[in-house]
Amino acid sequence: MNEERRRILDMLAAGKIGAAEAEQLLSALESKVPPATAPAAAGAKAPRYLRVLVEGYQDGAHPGGGKVNVRVPMELLRAGVKLAALLPAGVSDQINAALHQKGIDVDVSKIKPGNLEDIVEQLRDLTVDVDGPAGEHVRVFCE
Questions:
Q1: Which of 21, 55, 87, 134 gives the lowest tally of CB atoms within 10 Å of its CB?
Q2: Using CA of residue 50, residue 107, residue 93, residue 75, what is the dihedral sign?
């Protein structure tokens, strides 16, 4: 058994990841997924996921506190940027206007794959921790 496979199984046994996550990781190993295209710093792995965790969230549906756990693969972000590069100019203007209405000031026509790789490289050390007024704890990080 190779070392990567053993590490996944050890994390599963220790309860650090669930069975579904372990299955995904093992499948990725078997399919020989190529490493991320961003250049890695010496000895550091390129981040593969952007994680958003919210603990202690309370609303009418979760009065005892709930938990939000979002894990976005960096490859999904890369694919989105590549697709955005294919949009005609007129469509980009419509998307920008719709985003602006939602309070997001981004010009999708200026997002290029090379820009994303620079952003991913900078995300390597990102960790944001926020404690909310009602006991919520929000954590955003890359793994």
A1: 134
A2: negative
Average pLDDT rounded to a whole number, residues 96-115: 80
Q: Indicate yes or no: pTM above 0.70.
A: no
Specify the 3-state DSSP secondary structure of 91. helix
Report d(CA 96, CA 105) in Å as an integer.
Answer: 7
User: Of 136, 86, 135, 134, nearest to 112 (Cα)?
Assistant: 86
pLDDT confidence of 67, banded at 50, 70, 90? confident
pLDDT digits (tens, 9 = 90+) for 14-41: 888 888 888 878 777 776 544 444 344 4
Structural domain spans, the chain: 1-33, 43-142
Distances (CA, A) of 118 to 40, 48, 75, 121: 11, 14, 14, 5
Residue 10: its H or E element: helix 3-13
Phi and psi for 104 in degrees, rounded to 5?
-110, 110
Collapse the DSSP code of 133 into the 3-class scheme (helix H, G, I; strand E, B; otherwise coil) and give the result: coil
